[in-house]
């Protein structure tokens, strides 16, 4: 009986209205063009990375296995929010149903949290490869890689289910306007018709803590790697430094957003939308650029793939 009343309270708001990035029509058209270009390039770049890694047997290593997972997650992560945002650009009222909003929040946190765990695993992979090269194939064997992949996806699912369940149980009876271009937990719980301080503390202790702890672990890992690189020969050091620099760039951009949004109470700041743009559209695009333009093995594999494709067409 109590659950039925709670469900009825929750369902009082059938739709939420997304405020979007701007109410100015010219700005909206510029935003549409920018997001469309970013999204198309994100799909092409990340899918090409996955295909290249599958095609080239030289890239069948733990590092590239995790990189293909990262590219897959980036495609999914961007797809959760960007297509809806592109459609809303042409809509006078940017509405999203309660069910669609909950679904968007679930998958947004699933892919975001899974990516955080994946970046941490990738740092560990680089640590073993650089600091313990003789033990690398033993420590990072395929069984371990598969178990790590299963663990990070399971962890992301549990995290997302927990946050979405907490948000879903709150009563929503108005207002119904979300100050962003997609549904996220901090913005949605602000619309609940009840005191949400306990939920906000749980969000900070969950999402915020995961982001901060993983960021600290990553920084410490790369600091240890950089110290270890001082003892290596110049060529090997240059290649390892390039890889670590790429990873650190991704980590800073991605985790910077998570720490900024989820490590404070649910209050709206002018910077939130700008940070959200980087989180949903820019970072998934930067990953293929960083990992292909800075990586000689990937560039060589891409050239080989393109060369074979051109020969087949001829």
TrEMBL record:
Membrane topology: Multi-pass membrane protein
Molecular functions (GO terms): G protein-coupled receptor activity; olfactory receptor activity
Localization per record: Cell membrane; Membrane
Gene3D superfamilies reported in the protein's UniProt record: Rhodopsin 7-helix transmembrane proteins
Residues spanning the membrane: 29-51, 63-83, 95-124, 144-162, 209-229, 241-262, 274-293
CC per GO annotation: plasma membrane
Domain G-protein coupled receptors family 1 profile residue range list: 45-291
SMART domains per UniProt: 7TM_GPCR_Srsx
Keywords linked to the UniProt accession: Cell membrane, G-protein coupled receptor, Membrane, Olfaction, Receptor, Sensory transduction, Transducer, Transmembrane, Transmembrane helix
Top-level taxonomic group: Eukaryota
Family designation: Belongs to the G-protein coupled receptor 1 family.
Protein name: Olfactory receptor
Species in which this protein is naturally found: Otolemur garnettii (Small-eared galago)
Native organism taxonomy: Eukaryota, Metazoa, Chordata, Craniata, Vertebrata
């Amino acid at each position: 009986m109590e659950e039925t009343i709670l469900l009825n309270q929750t369902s009082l708001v059938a739709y939420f209205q997304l405020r979007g990035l701007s109410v100015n029509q010219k700005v909206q058209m510029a935003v549409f063009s920018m997001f469309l270009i970013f999204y198309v390039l994100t799909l092409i770049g990340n899918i090409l990375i996955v295909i290249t890694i599958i095609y080239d047997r030289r890239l069948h290593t733990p590092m590239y296995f995790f990189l293909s997972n990262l590219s897959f997650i980036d495609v999914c992560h961007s797809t959760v929010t960007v297509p809806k945002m592109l459609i809303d650009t042409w809509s006078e009222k940017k509405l999203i149903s309660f069910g669609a909003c909950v679904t968007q929040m679930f998958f947004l946190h699933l892919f975001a949290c899974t990516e955080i765990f994946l970046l941490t695993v990738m740092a560990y992979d680089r640590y073993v490869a650089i600091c313990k090269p003789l033990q690398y194939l033993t420590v990072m064997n395929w069984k371990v890689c598969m178990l790590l992949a299963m663990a990070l996806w399971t962890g992301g699912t549990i995290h997302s289910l927990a946050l979405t369940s907490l948000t879903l149980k709150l009563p929503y009876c108005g207002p119904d306007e979300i100050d962003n271009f997609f549904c996220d937990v901090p913005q949605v719980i602000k619309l609940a018709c009840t005191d949400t301080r306990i939920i906000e503390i749980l969000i900070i202790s969950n999402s915020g803590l995961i982001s901060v702890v993983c960021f600290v672990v990553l920084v410490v890992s790369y600091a240890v790697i950089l110290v270890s690189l001082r003892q290596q020969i110049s060529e090997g050091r240059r290649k390892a430094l390039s890889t670590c620099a790429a990873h650190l760039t991704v980590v800073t951009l991605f985790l910077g957003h998570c720490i900024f949004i989820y490590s404070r109470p649910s209050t709206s700041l002018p910077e939130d939308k700008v940070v959200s743009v980087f989180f949903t559209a820019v970072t998934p695009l930067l990953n293929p650029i960083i990992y292909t333009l800075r990586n000689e093995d990937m560039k060589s594999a891409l050239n080989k793939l393109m060369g074979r494709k051109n020969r087949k067409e001829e």
